[in-house]
Amino acid sequence: MTQHPTLITERLILRRMELTDLPNLMKYASNKNVSDKVFGYPFPYLEEDAIARMNTVLEGFKNKNRFIFTITQNDENELIGEIGMRLETEHNKAEIGYWIAEPYWGKGIATEAVAAILKFGFEEVKLNKIFATCFDGNDVSGKVLEKNGMILEGNLKQEYFFKGEYRDSLHYRMTKDEYMNL
Asked: How far is Cα 3 from Cα 91, in angstroms, rounded to an integer?
């Protein structure tokens, strides 16, 4: 792939991050309710954090080890979240992660975006396995993954040191065979 792909769903466009996305990235990622659920997002989320994130997005695609998409609604071109895939090419698998801006919670946006990235991962990238983790207690994220057919493999105790404490995480997976049988 020489150009960053764009994924289109019924209501969403998942596209490459642009400089014009930085103000919304800073605004929405600075929400404590969002940053408390997203590993690696500081609070407050500053301009330098947004610039570093943009560099991660661009470098990841250039190095062919990450696909990170800005989530927008079809009728608008403004960032309302992100979804990404970190590749482990030697094992032909990838980890997905996502976040949605709080004003858009409860609208099925994460569920729709996860469905699109699973399709992209299995059908375009030709992965054998896709997995995801979320903090134990983030029931909404777990439901998003389960609605898309991902299977809970286990609860990893004290998996991450996050904001001053050890946090348990839930590990979900889907194999290519499981995807094909949906």
From this structure: 24
Answer whether 71's CB lies under 8 Å from 12's CB.
yes
Q: Above 80 in pLDDT, residue 1?
A: no
Position 84 pLDDT exceeds 90: yes
SS3 55: helix
Helices (H), the chain: 22-29, 32-35, 47-62, 109-119, 139-147, 176-180
Q: Where are the domains of the chain?
A: 7-130
- Residue 135, pLDDT > 80, answer yes
Three-state DSSP class for residue 125: coil
**Percent of the chain clearing pLDDT 90 (strictly above):** 91
pTM: 0.95
Q: Of 72, 84, 155, nearest to 120 (Cα)?
A: 84
CATH (residue range 7-130): 3.40.630.30
